[in-house]
Write a structure and sequence with these properties.
Mean pLDDT: 83
Low-confidence stretches: 176-187, 379-384
Shape: globular
Strand content: under 5%
Radius of gyration: 20 Å
Number of helices: 14
CATH superfamily: MFS general substrate transporter like domains
Order of helices and strands: HHHHHHHHHHHHHH
Number of strands: 0
CATH topology: Growth Hormone, Chain: A
Largest sheet: none
Helix content: over 70%
CATH architecture: Up-down Bundle
Oligomer: single chain
Number of domains: 1
Length: 384
């Protein structure tokens, strides 16, 4: 679990460094909020495009090599950004390469968990893995006062790349995962609800990823200095780590409550986005940032746990559907947020994020209702 979490942190660091340092990078390379959103979106486009092919690679090479190789690909891309990024388009290309590593690491971690973690602890396992994403956001926030202000933004990407050797040491030798047993029932009837569920995931993660990657420039727009905005991002990301771990633990104890927990956390995120949209007071900004990133982004481990439980006869396929939703939302959210902020205002962008979070919660609850309705019809047919 530790090795998988560190590996995923390494692979997503470039995206969050780009968002947190977008002001400095944009001044250097000549782009604004819209360009920053497009650059972050490019990372998740790479993750989405290469998710399935990299999953096949993981099947061939096994989880150990997948985790290590993914970390090395990400580190190479981060070093290339530090050394060669001289325009927005080159930055975008390198971020697509960095995003491709997510498929290796995410599928490698999932297979490793399948071999070594009992199903009754999948909630905390997925929560720990997904906590590594806000850990990358936290590191990005801290990089501003620690590195960027002293040595420039490129030094932060060099530091992020230095996590790769740690991954190589931490990842143990793991046996290749065996295909899970299939009960041969219900796969088709659950596909529709899972796709709707993934749509809700895409809406929620789009808003939350936009908030986490572009919080710093949004808070700077309110008059905060860059270092304080970075520290706020670190605090909010720390809250998201705690929520993901707590939610995963709760999901293990009460697996039937995961749907309502998902909707509640998305609702908390929406409240935070509304606060950021409607007031610029310092305390409200802190509460809003913690709510939208801590709560509104603290549920992705639950999403994997819920989907794998629903698609228990085809868990890899179910997890793949969720990963597709995460990638689509991660790509579209920052781009849309940046475009709205540039064309209208940050308040309008936050209001849009709140609406997306609420729509995501509604879609997730609707998918539950659809699934339960289908199960009830199946049971009635069976009784006949």
């Amino acid at each position: 679990m530790v090795a998988g979490s560190v590996a995923l942190t390494t692979t997503v660091v470039p995206a969050f460094l780009t968002g947190a340092l977008s002001g400095r990078i944009g001044d250097d390379l000549g782009f604004g909020d819209g360009g920053a959103g497009a650059a972050v979106a490019a990372f998740f486009v790479g993750a989405g495009i290469f998710a399935v092919p990299m999953g096949r690679v993981t099947e061939r090479i096994g989880p150990t090599r997948a985790l290590r190789t993914g970390a090395l690909v990400s580190a190479a891309a981060a070093l290339a950004i530090a050394a060669f990024a001289s325009s927005l388009w080159l930055l975008i290309v390198l971020l697509v390469v960095a995003g491709s590593a997510v498929g290796l690491v995410d599928t490698g971690a999932a297979r490793a968990f399948g071999d070594s973690v009992p199903s009754t602890r999948h909630g905390i396992a997925f929560g720990a893995k997904e906590a590594s994403v806000p850990a990358a956001s936290l590191a990005a926030g801290l990089s501003i006062p620690i590195l960027a202000e002293q040595l420039g933004w490129r030094s932060a990407f060099v530091a992020g790349a230095m996590l790769a050797p740690l991954v190589w040491v931490l990842v143990p030798r793991l046996a290749a995962d065996r295909p899970p047993p299939s009960d041969g029932r219900g796969g088709d009837s659950r596909r529709g609800p899972l796709v709707l569920f993934a749509g809700g995931v895409a809406l929620g993660v789009g808003a939350a990823t936009a908030a986490s990657t572009l919080l710093v420039p949004a808070i700077e727009d309110r008059g905060w200095n860059e270092a304080d905005a970075g520290l706020l991002l670190a605090v909010a990301s720390g809250a998201s780590i705690a929520v993901r771990l707590a939610a995963g633990s709760r999901g293990d104890r009460a697996p039937r409550s995961t749907w309502s927990m998902l909707a509640t956390l998305l609702g908390i995120g929406a409240v935070g986005a509304v606060l950021l949209a409607t007031t610029s007071a310092g305390v409200a900004s802190v509460v809003g940032a913690v709510a939208v990133i801590g709560g509104g982004w603290g549920w992705t481990g639950l999403a994997f746990q819920t989907a794998v439980r629903v698609g228990r006869d085809r868990p890899a396929a179910a997890a793949g559907i969720v990963l597709t939703g995460l990638s689509v939302g991660g790509a579209a959210g920052p781009a849309a947020f940046g475009a709205i902020a540039s064309a209208v205002s940050y308040s309008a962008a936050w209001a849009t994020a709140a609406a997306a979070l609420l729509a995501g919660a509604a879609a997730i609850l609707a998918s539950k209702h659809w699934l339960e309705s289908g199960s009830a019809r199946g049971q009635t047919t069976g009784a006949r």
